[in-house]
């Protein structure tokens, strides 16, 4: 088990009540739920920070296919390469 530290945190009553109702319905303990929620929030914020820091590192010449297609077309093209349809098996 990883090393842990105890924190004393105050939550608004309404948040505690909503969390308790949700946890009761899905059978997850409060500590695990809060740890997972904080870890997810940190992951998202680090991801956004990375996106901001790397914005503009590619010039149009670095990826010419991006300027000739819309983003959606480019994503579809990439996905089509890996897509396996049931009737193709």
Descriptive tags:
single chain; 89 residues; mainly alpha; 4 helices; elongated
Textual characterization of the structure:
Helices cover about 65% and strands about 0% of the residues. It has about 90 residues and is mostly helical. It has one domain. The longest helix has 25 residues, at about 30-55.
Summed up, what is this model?
The protein has 89 residues and is mostly helical. It has four helices and no strands.
Distance between the termini: 43 Å
Q: Name the overall outline.
A: elongated
Number of domains: 1
Number of strands: 0
Mean pLDDT: 86
* Class based on secondary structure composition and strand pairing: mainly alpha
Uncertain runs are none
Helical proportion, percent range: 55-70%
Number of alpha- plus pi-helical segments = 4
Biggest sheet architecture:
none
The value of Rg in angstroms is 22 Å
- Element-by-element helix/strand order: HHHH
Q: Hey, roughly how much beta strand do the residues contain?
A: under 5%
